[in-house]
């Protein structure tokens, strides 16, 4: 792990996003709440939030960052579902990995919940693709409230 002992505590915010391409019929099932395993959007939000909080467990060289906020949106759009995660912390190192892990886990949860709708006659997933997972913005600035 990188030593951040001498760095100042500042507000750090990162937003990541990505999407999962699905059959249009699957996206419609998600939007209308017609998936056997339940509410895909709510479950995927919770999955992403939990994953973001567990980033240092998943990525062993990441610091245990005390997160102050996680916002995760899961949005059906046409033939895909977009996940966007914004993470905030007042700390000595950034939160990009937490945002990326939140997005990736949310999208994996979508896949898990709808895989029965996505399989073809051979049990494969020819149209199901997770892609575009990236950091879309990050900010670092000023001294965090309460720091000295």
Task: Describe the protein in words.
The structure is a single chain. The chain is elongated and about 55 Å long. The protein has helices spanning 24-32, 40-53, 55-58, 96-118; strands spanning 10-21, 67-77, 80-91, 129-143. Strand 2 (67-77) and strand 3 (80-91) form a beta hairpin. With 148 residues, it is an alpha+beta fold. It has one domain: 2-Layer Sandwich (Alpha-Beta Plaits). It has a four-stranded antiparallel beta sheet. The protein is 34% helix and 34% strand. It contains four helices and four strands; from the N terminus they run E-H-H-H-E-E-H-E.
User: Judging from the principal axes of the Cα atoms, what is the shape?
Assistant: elongated
Counting helices, strands and paired strands, the structural category is alpha+beta
* CATH-defined topology: Alpha-Beta Plaits
Total number of beta strands? 4
Helix content: 25-40%
> What integer is the average pLDDT?
94
- Number of separate helices: 4
How many domains make up the 3D coordinates? Answer: 1
Q: Name the beta content range.
A: 25-35%
How are the strands of the largest sheet arranged? 2-3-1-4
Task: Please compute the radius of gyration using only Cα atoms.
Answer: 17 Å
Question: Mind sketching the topology for me?
Answer:
Layout: E1 10-21, H1 24-32, H2 40-53, H3 55-58, E2 67-77, E3 80-91, H4 96-118, E4 129-143
Antiparallel strand pairs: 1-3, 1-4, 2-3
Helix pairs in contact: 2-4
């Amino acid at each position: 792990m990188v030593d951040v002992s001498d760095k100042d505590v500042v507000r750090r915010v990162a937003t990541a996003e990505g999407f999962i391409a699905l059959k249009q019929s699957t996206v419609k099932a998600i939007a209308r709440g017609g998936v056997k395993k339940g509410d895909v959007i709510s479950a995927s939000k919770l999955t992403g939030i939990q994953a973001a909080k567990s980033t240092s467990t998943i990525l062993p060289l990441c610091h245990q960052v005390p997160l102050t906020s996680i916002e995760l949106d899961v949005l059906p759009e046409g033939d895909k579902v977009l996940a966007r995660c914004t993470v905030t912390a007042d700390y000595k190192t950034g939160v990009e990995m937490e945002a990326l892990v939140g997005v990736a886990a949310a999208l994996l949860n979508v896949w898990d919940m709808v895989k029965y709708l996505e399989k073809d006659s051979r049990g494969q997933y020819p149209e199901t693709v997770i892609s575009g997972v990236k950091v879309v913005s990050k900010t670092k600035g000023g001294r965090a409230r309460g720091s000295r």
